[in-house]
Amino acid sequence: MKTMFKAAALAGAAIAGTVLTAAPAAAQVGGLAATDPAQVVAGSSALLTAYKQIAQTYSAQAATASQLSTEIQNLGKQLDTNGDNQISDQEAAAARTSNPALIQQIDAKEKQISTAQQPILTAQLYVVEQLLAQFTAAAQQVSADKKISAILSPEALIYAPPAIDVTPALTAALNARVPTASITVPAGWQPQRQTMQIHQQVAQIMIYMARQQQQQQAQPTATQPQGR
Asked: Of 62, 111, 170, 210, which is most buried by a Cβ count within 10 Å?
């Protein structure tokens, strides 16, 4: 059975204002450097601004998707026969036989969510692709400025000191090259595969940072000792 609802397309729009914590600025080591392209894109000012604009432009669609997801969660409670607040494959399979009408309701609402989220997702993908179009040029600029012979992805490294990270420098270079990004998607535009992959990673980064921010805000403030 499908997940109860997909929130990835809404996550970036909902938390676009989150400030990403960049790694410490540092120079390359031994001619080598490393960065995560998704982190660079996620930290760019153009993306954060564009995601805010997308959230405002498609606020009605986001609200519709949120309402539908709540309705699906409420319907899903009827499938949770063992009361563990989770829908197992066995419970879903049993419901398809015992209560097919309920499953059809859930499936229909999931399709409605996908329809509501589509313009949000497409606009976000278009923003990401605009940034990726200038990523190589930004990397070449940073390489020339810092005398770097190669920039590696984190997956290619077994170990590296913090000084090898050039994410802040790349983000600054990308900001200069793409100060703003359009959220108006051209007719017939289709994202590249790399764009979809980076978009998913950006959404995960932003969700992680938003959760960290929420946890920090939820921590009780230490009581200051009163003066005599």
From this structure: 170
